[in-house]
Each structure stands twice: as C-alpha cells, then as structure tokens.
Design a protein that fits this description.
Number of strands: 8
Distance between the termini: 74 Å
Number of helices: 26
Radius of gyration: 27 Å
Shape: globular
Length: 636
C-alpha cells in the first residue's frame, strides 16, 4: 500500500511539474505571438455567441471553445460592429468582423483581447495533459503514464496549437474523452458510465466537427464488445441469445448518441436564441447553394433511391426556419460546410509544389518531419515491440490470442481503432493545411507506445530450469539491461526537453532535424505548419529597432499590418513589382506567400507570372527575418 501511495504521489508531483512547465511556456509565447489566421475569425465569432447569443459568424466550427475563449472579453466593455453590413446583411463575414473587432473598433486593445482570449485554450490544453495521464494510468500505472503526458506537455506541436484560439487541441480532447468514456461504459456498464458517455459524447461534438467520426468508431467498439460477450457466454454468434445481446448493446449505443445530441441541440438553441429566423434561413440557403449539385426544389434527391448529401442539405435548410429545430439545423450546417470544404480542398504549398487537391503522403511526411525525433524513436520502438510480441505469441496455437487481447486490452484496441480510422480518413482528404489536423491521433500513439515499451521493460527471464551460477549471471544481465533501458528513457526525456527549449519561442515553426529545423522547415510545408501569421509583432519590433520609416509588406495571417506599423507600412504583393522602384528601401514578405508564389503548380493549379515574384531574384538572400516566418529584404 505504501509503495502504491508513493508511486501515485510521485506521479502527481511530476505531472504537476509537466503542467506548470507547459502552461508557463504557452503563456510566454502567447504574449509574443500576433494573431494567427484562424483566430481572426474565431475570436469575434466567440464574442458574438456569448454577448449576443447569435451564431451567424463562423458556423463551420462548433461553439464551445470559441465561446469559452471569449468569455473573459465580456468584462472589457468592447465594441462590436453590429451596425455594419458585415453583421446586418452579409453572410458569414467573419474575416471582416475580425478585422473591425480586433483592430478598429476597440482602440489599442487588440493585444489584450488576443491574450485574454487565449487563456481558456491554454487551460483546456493543460486539462488535456492531465486527462492523458489519468487514462494512461488506468492502462500502465502512475509512473509509466508520465511518459505520454510528458510528450503532450512538452511537444512543440501541442505547445504551438495549445495557445491559439483554434479547435485542433479541442478536437484532440474531444476524441480522447469520447473514446475513453464510451470504452469505459462498454467495459463497466452502469448508469453512471452510461450518462457520462452520453454527456461526454455531446461535449466532443461541441469541440470540433471531425469528432462525428466517433459515431462509426462507437459502433465498431459496440460490435467488438458484443462478440466478446457472446464468446464469454458461449453463445453461437448469430443465435437468438447472441442477437438479443447485440440488440441491447445497440440500444445503449443509440441512447448515448441521443443524450449527446440533446446536449448539442441545447447549446445551439442558446447560441441561436437572438439569431433572427429569416436571417438564419437565408444564410443557410446561401451557404448551401452550391452544395452537392445545388438546390433541389422538387426534393427528388430525397427519394429512397436518390438519398444523398443534397437531401440532407435541403432538410437542413427546412430545419433552419423552424423555431424548435433550427438549433440542430445550425449544427448540421457546420458539418455540411466541413464536408464541402474537404471535398473542394485548400490551396497548399508542399515540398516545392502547390495544389488545391492534396497529396496522400502529406500527413505521413509531416508526421515524420514535425514530430520530435525522440518521440518518433519511442513510437517506432513501441510499434516494433508490439509486432514482435504478436508474432511470438502466434507460435502458441493453444491460446485464443485475439479474444484474450480484446478482452484484457480493450482500451488499447479502442485507441488503435481510432488511430487507424482517423489516419485512413486523413490521407484520403484533399484538405492539406497542417499537421494540426492529425493532432487527435498523437496522444493515442504516445500511450500505445509507452504501454508497449513498459511490457518489454518489465519482461522477466525464466529462471526455473537453470543452475544457481547461471541464475546469478542472468540476474546481473537483467539488472544491466534494465539499467540501460532506464537510461534510454532518461535520454529520450532530456532530448525532448532540449529540443523544445531550442525551439522556443518558435513552436509553430518547429521541424525536426530531418525536416530542416525551425529555420528551414518551410521548404517542406508552410501555412499552419510554419507561417500562420504569428510574427507580425516581431516585424514591428524589427522596424522600430532599425528606425525604418517605410517598408512594403506582403503579410499572411490574422494580424493587421496597419494596426502595428501605422503609416510606416505599405501593403504590397508580387504583382506590384519591386518596391525599390517607388523609393521604398525595405520589403517584408511572409514565407507562406513567397513560397506559394514560387512553387511548381500541380494538378492543373495555375499561377499568374506577375504573382510569382520574378523580381525577388534580384536579391540573393533575405537581410533578416522577423521571427522565423517573415523574410525581410534590404533593397538598397
């Protein structure tokens, strides 16, 4: 008992240090970074939800994180552009609303607004680290659970995305708690775990629309648990008794979904309370006008032999005009917008090419180049050991290997299913805009790897049939091997700490050694992998320090050039030509803009010659950088 208490206490102490360190780093970087692209839409949208209970902005993302992030802003007495066309008549004018709200309507409060809005995402990330620890603890105990929570807490990728008002860490949290709660209900079914699973499922749907993937995952886990239960009760798989068990499991599955979606409906009812019904209906019609073939006034695509996404879109338009249903209609609208965007793709730069249709190897390459090498080593080692154990056990034909594994490792199986399903979906997607989209799978990989290594670490030799001398020799070898294993884990931990410290404060631009590091990683991929607009404040510092009176700027991100640089900046782009011809001696350009312009167009993508920066070749190398992501050229 004392040993167990000691291990638990030690685990909590180290976990606290991880959480404090992670929180400190995110707060520090948050105060230095300018707004990234998505924050320009998310922050004003969240503010409009909590202040006006109106959901006309940014419907393609669920409300929970945005609303909570904006709550501290209610105490600042801010102005919001409700009297302008971007609110009264435009449809989803989120970017214009962001520009006005952050940089025009509220004096010089933009940095304060952005910093305060980032507090809740940071808190949510810290909660996420804690939950990773406690689920891992159920699988591998309090000491080994520290490894995956340490990976999350000190990973540059989580530190980067964890301090922005975006939904990616929220998605990771949604998947973690959703699968954990449902797997717990299946392994320990009772009223408490049932209601927790339903409520948690609803919360997950309010964090990111990609968590709708939980529905087929839950169904898969339900079928597996039914198969295990039938085998345990020695029922034939399709006997009446077995099918009765299946029906009971299926009913519970449906009830849990219903509980979750009632919670979703209630939250959407709240945030659409002051959204005028005619405005919501007309906005929905406009946003779905080109969806899946366009409007279908005859509803022919809702016939039994024609049912498809257009039918769902038409039903959603109908729901948007019904007082009781319009809250859920707004939720469905968001999912349909995500589907529409994923199908259409997004213009992306990747390894010297630019396209809007994506690459199947985009996420695998980013995973190998943006994940820290010590974490990659851990994952590869864990996978190797798991495969080795599988083939070793395959020699023993007397064991019911699959049944036993699923019965005693159901949590691990649920994680494996999630990782495989999500990665299969991701590599087929045309939406290639950042490693952040596969963040939800990383904590599961960390936990699975740590669990696999623990089994290898604790493996014991068979002393039963060897002599005393050999036993002593074997014991010494075992001690030596275990010491080396401990040292290896210690080395992995120190390596990750050193990697993270060396990347500070440029966590968003982090690439590992194979990817070119934080200074050259942009050659693989930009956008939210490297340049999301986070360095505009650092450009201001450079301009002030060097007493620059006029600088041309081509900026990509959620900041505002005029707000930070005032009359010293002239907004520019490639088509305007060389700024020196207009007497401007300095030029700053976001790496995302220049790399995309100079890239090789693929899959019928086209770049106009005047937009490809032909004149930048007159200058050999940038004179300096603002942070990592803005090249600064001295033209004379």
């Amino acid at each position: 008992m004392k040993k167990a208490l000691s291990a638990n206490s030690f685990g909590l102490i180290i976990l606290s240090l991880i959480v404090i360190s992670s929180g400190f780093l995110m707060l520090k970087v948050s105060s230095q970074d300018s707004a990234v692209m998505d924050e320009l839409a998310h922050i004003p949208a969240g503010y409009s939800y909590v202040r006006y209970l109106d959901y006309r902005l940014n419907p393609e993302h669920p409300p929970l994180l945005k609303a909570l992030a904006a709550t501290p802003l209610l105490f600042l007495g801010l102005n919001f552009p409700t009297n302008q066309s971007l609110w009264t008549s435009d449809v989803n004018s989120q970017w214009n609303a962001g520009t006005d709200f952050l940089y025009k309507d509220n004096g010089q409060k933009a940095d304060l607004i952005i910093f305060l809005a980032r507090l809740f995402p940071i808190i949510l990330t810290l909660i996420f680290i804690i939950l990773v620890y406690f689920w891992a603890k159920e699988i591998m105990g309090p000491i080994w659970a520290l490894l995956p929570s340490f990976f999350v807490g000190l990973s540059p990728n989580f530190l980067a995305n964890g301090h922005y008002v975006t939904t990616d860490v929220g998605a990771a949290l949604g998947f973690l708690i959703g699968i954990w709660a449902y797997a717990k209900y299946l392994t320990s079914p009772n009223k408490k775990t049932f209601w927790i699973a339903g409520i948690v499922f609803g919360i997950s749907q309010l964090l990111k629309f990609s968590t709708v993937i939980l529905v087929p995952l839950f169904l898969l886990l339900t079928l597996v648990k039914w198969w295990l239960k039938s085998n345990e009760l020695e029922y034939k798989i399709f006997s009446k008794k077995s099918l009765k068990v299946l029906w009971e499991y299926f009913l519970s599955f449906i009830k849990i979904l219903v509980i979750g979606y009632i919670l979703v409906w209630a939250v959407y009812v709240l945030f659409t309370f002051n959204y005028p019904i005619p405005k919501q209906n007309s906005d929905t019609v406009f946003l779905l006008n080109s969806f899946s073939g366009g409007p279908d006034p005859s509803w022919s695509k809702c016939l039994p032999n024609q049912i498809g996404l257009r039918c769902i879109a038409d039903i959603d338009i109908w729901m948007s005009s019904k007082p009781i249903l319009r809250g859920f209609g707004q939720y469905i609208l968001g999912i349909l917008m995500v589907i529409q965007r994923a199908a259409g793709g997004n213009t992306s730069y990747f390894m010297g090419n630019i396209s809007s249709s994506g690459w199947w190897y985009y996420f695998p390459i980013l995973f190998l180049t943006k994940e820290p090498i010590p974490i990659l080593i851990t994952i590869v080692l864990g996978l190797y050991l798991a495969i080795k154990r599988f083939f070793d056990n395959a020699k023993d034909k007397k064991r019911k290997r699959l049944f036993n594994y699923l019965e005693f490792n159901f949590y691990e199986f649920s994680m494996i299913a999630m990782v495989l399903f999500y990665w299969f979906y991701s590599v087929r997607s045309n939406l290639n805009i950042g490693l952040r989209h596969v963040l939800p799978t990383l904590p599961f990989l960390y936990i699975l790897s740590a669990s696999s290594i623990k089994k290898w670490f604790n493996s014991k030799p068979d002393f039963e049939y060897i002599s005393t001398i050999n036993k002593i020799s074997s014991a010494f070898k075992t001690f030596l091997k275990k010491s080396l294993k401990i040292f290896a884990i210690f080395l992995i931990s120190i390596w990750l700490i050193a990697d993270t410290v060396s990347a500070y404060p440029y966590f968003l631009s982090y690439y590992n050694y194979f990817g070119g590091g934080i200074w050259n990683g942009y050659k693989i991929a930009t956008d939210s992998n490297y340049d999301w607009g986070q360095d505009l404040k650092r450009l201001k510092d450079f301009v002030d320090k060097n007493n620059i009176q006029k600088i041309a700027v081509d900026y990509f991100g959620g900041g505002n050039v005029e707000y930070y640089l005032k009359d010293k900046a002239v907004e520019w782009n490639s088509a305007k030509g060389d700024p020196s011809s207009q007497g401007i001696d300095w030029y700053a350009v976001s790496i995302n803009s220049i790399e995309s312009a100079k890239a090789n167009p693929t899959n019928n993508y086209q770049i106009n010659q005047e937009d490809s920066y032909p004149w930048i070749n007159n200058y050999q190398n940038p004179y300096a950088r603002a942070g990592t992501s803005i090249f600064i050229y001295k033209l004379k």
